[in-house]
Amino acid sequence: MPDSEPLGGDLIGPDWTPSAIDPTVATPARIYSYLLGGGDHFPADREAAEKALEAMPELRDFARVNRAFLTRAVRHLAEILENPEVRGRLDFDRPVAVLLVAVMHFVIDEDDPYGAVGALMDAVAPGSVLVLSQVTADLDPEGVRATAKAYARSSVKTAVRSGKEIAAFFDGLEPVDPGLVMLSQWRPDEQVLAGDDRIGIYGGVALKP
After folding, report:
1. How many other C-beta atoms lie within 10 A of the C-beta of residue 66?
2. pLDDT exceeds 90 at position 93
3. Once rounded to an integer, what is the mean pLDDT over residues 105-109?
4. Residues 107, 109, 111, 113: is their CA dihedral positive or negative?
5. I want to staple 63 with a disulfide (CB 3.0 to 4.6 A). Which of 35, 110, 137, 182 is the partner?
6. In 10 A of CB 115, how many CB atoms?
7. At 174, which helix (H) or strand (E)?
């Protein structure tokens, strides 16, 4: 396959690339696209992804499970909005959903990740919802740290956090059942496959009171 052609077959070459994008530098979003079988990525992104896959072969499952969590969380939010009791509590002209799914492990401690999430939630109206997921080393410390090192060699900085550290993103918010859990345990449906409980990503949904 030529370097300018992604998995999906749509050519991504010099004519496609906006001038503000450096295709020689990998980015988390394009690596994620590659892991999910998407078409928006460059050779640098594919190289970074393959290095990360060498460190953690189940990384594609991490991406798949994370995307499935996002689908379930958004579906649940839609169900909440259909509840008459909830409708009576919320001003629908104002509350919003803040989706930080597979984002915060790319915000390193030096960039004040907790301050960033706090600022976002301070800015939105009561009744707004935070949906957040983050990779953790709680289940597989060696594999996750090796993957982080592989990303770092491609100029992609990552932050590995514990469940307790990830829970701190939800401080001051009201958790939606089942709280902060591994993604396979968050309201599982047919998208959750056998063995997904080995995927070390925490996720949760919480309301701003």
Report:
1. 21
2. no
3. 89
4. positive
5. 35
6. 9
7. strand 174-175
